[in-house]
Write a structure and sequence with these properties.
The complex is a heterotetramer, with two copies of chain A and two copies of chain B. Chain A is mainly beta. Helix content of chain A is about 5%, strand content about 55%. Chain A folds into two domains: about 5-85, Beta Barrel (Lipocalin), CATH 2.40.128; about 95-170, RNA polymerase II/Efflux pump adaptor protein, barrel-sandwich hybrid domain (OB fold (Dihydrolipoamide Acetyltransferase, E2P)). In chain A, strands 1-2-3-4-5-6-7-8 form an eight-stranded antiparallel barrel. In chain A, strands 9-16-14-11 form a four-stranded antiparallel beta sheet, with no helix packed on it. A four-stranded antiparallel beta sheet of chain A has the order 13-12-10-15, with no helix packed on it. By secondary structure, chain B is of the alpha+beta class. Chain B folds into four domains: about 5-105, Rossmann fold; about 130-200, 2-Layer Sandwich (Dna Ligase, domain 1); about 205-450, ATP-grasp fold, B domain (D-amino Acid Aminotransferase, Chain A, domain 1, 2-Layer Sandwich), CATH 3.30.470.20; about 455-500. Chain B is built from 18 helices and 22 strands. The longest helix of chain B is centred in the C-terminal third of the chain and has 26 residues, at about 455-480. The termini of chain B are far apart. The chains are: A mainly beta, B alpha+beta. Chains C and D meet through strand 16, helix 17 and helix 18 of C and strand 1, strand 2, strand 3, strand 4 and strand 5 of D.
């Protein structure tokens, strides 16, 4: 097993290396910074770290992808991604890139389809609202960013949808 | 005497009402939609009955279903909470007709206060100051212009049946008047089926201050002082406190008297709230009356030391008010923060989902009214408010410190919440100084945006934690696949130190 | 100004002190033994340092280790909580010598009040009523008999260095006197290394009533009224309330003055408690002084509206008391229940172990001071108290109703707790009527024993739940073994109805 | 799989039979009483039951033995034991009987050994304290109930022990 991993947080990618671990005493290097930590998982996903006496409490929330975490510290929340060999390889080859969602319209939150404003085959102008989704008494309108043709509509009014589920395909 | 109360609501307010029922030895009955079978109010009640599909207009808003359950289970009263049917005059009448006590006012009070033009007229007649403006719907656009010239710009055009910011137009220049009137009328017609609009003077840098009142069925009416509700986002209250940092005791007395006069003008009984708008000059005007319990009622309970739901039930029982105005006083300071399942870093997008981990702050001066638990899935059909955190302190400063510390210790994972946003409000200088009005959130965007730079060490601790957790996960998988169960390969790792790099 | 406080304690009191530190912007430092690495006080603090093995005499009681940590981390003050080093005069002196502020009184006050004969003498000199009895150790048994004949039987023989019921003998008949004195002396010698004993009149059906006092370093001393602590089991307080149902305002004023006099007699500063014993005739006598924060201090905070830890820190800072006696009053009623990890159905046997599921009551008037969480393992080395539930109500009746309802909604599984026992106390007529003394628990054994008969339906629901859970467990195992993962065979079960019996 | 089981609670042994189950609606017979229940596991081990509207909340705690539960209802706690075919067989054969712990001395609670009062081979009288265990500042003395000989001592002073762990074997 590999004890060195790259980890992405915001714009920064750091290399973490596990130097030693004896019960809850962990020696770890983050880029050039060496830490000796007393680190304990006190509840499932909740860690207590003592770094030369300074107390940190962190809670991990694993996302659907096992390599992505949301980490809650005292004051903040960070999105963290583990970059292992496989993703590194793919990144170097340029296979993984930012998906701009160009061809699908979706809602980041689960909810209910209130209104589908278009039909298959419609030619719609930049900025046209194509679908309205409601969650928790708040309606959100989803628009196309450039001129588009509606290729497919995957939901109908009244449907309950998950977050990030494709709703409409555009060309 | 009321023996069994049906609570025609869900979420934190249903549980809050049931708590007082339990203390008073009254049985509580929950109703629930498809989405709410696993909700806490169902678990908390003595009895619970299903009333239909998840959308509230097919369940919590269906009068017939709720009445049917109440009759079937023998409830002698219905508490509507807030929202849903709480300000529905038809529902109040229907309860009366069925011989069930509606814990709220009669339809006359609801109707009079529900229509803004009618309410304005009644308040003027009762001697309660209202915002300068018209008392009749605008029919003649020319007369409207003349009237506006008389009271002076800026003005608000408002729908008589309005609410939620719909059918409202702010007019700053004379040339906008005609368009504003026409726009407001057409929007009001669409939204409420009623195009009556009226004109009000626009109060600049306004404060939203409301008074809690209680009235029994025998004409005794008292007020329980003010609540300052100016911290608002899109006309929704976010943080409330009492006493108001703006208030003087002279103005408080006077406003309290006006609040009582307002309630008496409609023969009000039960708990209600008179909302005022106030300028920096402490001039105040009646805005509207909420004929129900407010979301923010706990801060009044904290500083006055009264259980408002118990009072509501006693009033519904026909008892005389046990509280006397001269015996009431405010002690210390209370603040409420409303915690929403929403993402403040992403335009306050609602964030329904499953609560992974939930732990709330405890200790001195902390009150918590909520309904979610670890493993609970917040449904998409209802309001995103998941809990209210209320703190009390000897002084305003102590209350702010306590709220800041309590928010800091409030942990919810699995969904996004407004907790960090609320923490930033507690740190905003204008809030700390008590110098704010309803423009507070837009005026303080810089403070309220999430902080950009974090301490490097904190970031690195977050990375280390994810790193270790991920390694442990990998190890578990590899142990499992090689069947070396029970033996922790890592234990010896420190001694061997044979680190191999990728 | 104090910037960083080391809390030389663990459990709920450590967290309670840290909460106020956080509100005041003061850094808090935890110390922990081997057993406490995962304890909440370590997680809650800004800094935490290990001080030794699990037994408290190798960690929390070791003065040198605590001083060493305080100096290393730059703490300018130490808060001892209650228990452990809180009433250790040597520790108070040592802190002073090291230039660290001890948040508590000086060694003179601790020593004077710690020895009962010395304390009695001081109180008599200060004009505070003490239980009639001797002021010198008993040396001559004959003189003792004469003295007892003078004040009349029954009497108590008590060890001067005593505590925890050791070295105490109740004498009801003259012929028991000699044996009682000899027994008490030999027990006192064994337990405290000091065989000094004295004689006190025995107060029949006594009430234990204590007064909270606060004193600054400039001679200002006030009291914050009484706490009624007569609900005791084996001299351990179980339930406390304030105001005392026995008290009159005349006696309260008088006792308050005596409490202040008692504190002044030893030049006391900080927070302290004067314990009195009171007869049914409301005659009262000084019993002892606790020179620290009490476990039950939150009920005073609830009705007086003061944060006592904040006051302690302000006093340690050398500030003048900000509170004035004439401005203080009691508002409403507060009750505290101490929740222990113990089995009330099995002679209150301690029940350490892992907390499986933990959910605490919320809402109006509920305060919760605890330190355990789901998954936490309660160590065997320390006191079995796991949390304190404090309620406030407008009236005593409302407070009892609220406590009953709160206990009902308090769920801890995995260990046994005293919650149901406390619920039964809230239902015991003598408690409800407020007619009880320190014999309450033994006098009410019938009410306090667990109920024998349960409603059949409730029992059958319990069986059904276990039944269904067990079937689901079996199903999971069989699904797993036949590799039909993801397919729930049970889903179709209702339709098939092919029930096969064993 | 068998849908009928005997369940023991206190002195009572009842026969439970699952008649039907469709999503959360459960029909079940307890001896002669038939119940139709709306039953949902709302949290792990926590069940919400609605019986014709009446709301029950129950929390199950499984003991070390998978067939034994502690069930918490609103007001009470019950110890429940599932009696399946195997235990029934054994009970009928008389193999399982109340163990009076006759030959072992143990403490029901975990704790620390404060003092071992005897040595192997000692002949002790009825009522003699043989061992003292401390947990949470409370000491408990364990005595022999009749005259005994100490056959074995399994712990020493200072040892941390689990609940119900054998400490001393007597003859």
């Amino acid at each position: 097993m590999n004890k060195t991993l790259d980890i992405k947080i915001g714009d920064r990618i750091a290399t973490l290396e596990l130097i030693s671990r004896r019960s809850n005493i962990v020696e770890v290097k983050v880029d050039d910074n060496m830490y000796t930590l007393d680190m304990l998982e006190v509840e499932k996903g909740a860690y207590s770290i003592l770094k030369e006496g300074v107390s940190y409490n962190l809670e991990l929330l694993q996302k659907t992808n096992t390599k992505e975490y949301e980490v809650h510290t005292h004051n903040e929340t960070f999105d963290i991604e583990i970059i292992d060999a496989e993703s590194k390889y793919l990144m170097n080859r340029g296979v993984i890139s930012d998906d701009d969602g160009g061809n699908t319209i979706s809602s980041p939150m689960p909810g209910k389809i209130i209104k589908v404003m278009v039909q298959i085959g419609d030619q719609v102008k930049e900025g046209t609202t194509v679908i309205i989704v409601e969650a928790m008494k708040m309606q959100s309108e989803y628009k196309v960013k450039t001129d588009r043709v509606i290729a497919d509509i995957l939901v109908k009014e009244g449907d309950a949808i998950d977050g990030n589920q494709p709703l409409i395909i555009v060309e | 005497m009321i023996q069994k109360i049906l609570i025609a609501n869900r979420g934190e307010i249903a549980i809050r009402v049931m708590r007082t029922c339990r203390e008073m030895g009254i049985k509580s009955v929950a109703v629930y939609s498809d989405a709410d079978r696993s909700s806490m109010h169902v678990r908390y009640a003595d009895e619970a009955y299903h009333i239909g599909p998840s959308p509230s207009n097919e369940s919590y808003l269906v009068v017939d279903k709720i009445i049917e359950v109440a009759k079937k289970c023998g409830a002698d009263a219905i508490h509507p909470g807030y929202g849903f049917l709480s300000e529905n005059a038809t529902f109040s009448d229907r309860c009366k007709k069925e011989g069930i006590e509606f814990i709220g006012p009669d339809s006359h009070a609801i109707n009079t206060m529900g229509d803004k033009i009618t309410a304005r007229k009644n308040m003027i007649a009762a001697g309660v100051p209202v915002v300068p403006g018209t008392t009749e719907p605008i029919l003649d656009e020319k007369k409207a212009i003349k009237y506006i010239q008389k009271i002076g710009l800026p003005v608000m055009i408002k729908a008589s049946a309005g609410g939620g910011g719909k059918g409202m137009r702010l007019v700053k220049e004379e040339k906008e008047i005609i368009n504003a009137i026409r726009g407001a009328r057409s929007e009001a017609l669409n939204a409420f089926g009623n195009d009556a609009v009226y004109i009000e003077k626009y109060i600049d840098s306004p404060h939203h201050i409301e008074f809690q009142i209680l009235a029994d069925k025998h004409g005794n009416t008292i007020h329980l002082f003010e609540r300052e509700c100016s911290v608002q986002r899109r006309h929704q209250k976010v943080v409330e406190e009492t006493p108001s940092p703006l208030m003087t005791s002279k103005v408080r007395d006077e406003m309290g008297k006006h609040a009582v006069m307002a309630a008496k003008a409609v023969n009000y009984y039960g708990a209600g709230t008179i909302e005022f708008i106030m300028g920096d000059d402490l001039k105040y005007y009646f805005l509207e009356m909420n004929t129900r319990l407010q979301v923010e009622h706990p801060i009044t309970e904290s500083v006055v030391g009264v259980d408002l739901v118990r009072q509501q039930i006693n009033i519904a029982n026909g008892f005389d008010l046990s509280l006397k105005q001269e015996n009431l006083s405010q002690k210390g300071h209370a603040i409420e923060c409303r915690i929403y399942a929403e993402d403040p870093n992403n335009n306050f997008m609602p964030s329904p989902g499953v609560i992974e981990h939930f732990s709330e702050p405890l200790g001195l001066g902390i009150r918590h009214d909520g309904y979610v638990y670890s493993g609970y899935e917040i449904p998409i059909f209802y309001d995103p408010m998941i809990s209210k955190l209320i703190v009390w302190g000897e002084t305003r400063e102590e209350a702010i410190d306590r709220m800041r510390s309590a928010l800091f210790n409030y942990k919810i994972t699995g969904i996004k919440t407004s907790i960090k946003f609320l923490e930033r409000i507690m740190n905003t200088p204008d809030f700390v100084k008590g110098k704010y009005n309803t423009h507070f959130i837009q005026d303080n965007e810089d403070f309220l945006l999430p902080p950009k730079a974090s301490k490097t060490e904190c970031i690195e601790m977050a990375m280390v934690t994810a790193f270790i957790n991920y390694l442990d996960k990998l190890e578990k998988i590899s142990l499992h696949s090689t069947s070396e169960k029970g033996i922790n390969l890592w234990k010896d790792y420190g001694r061997k130190k044979n680190v191999s790099r990728l």
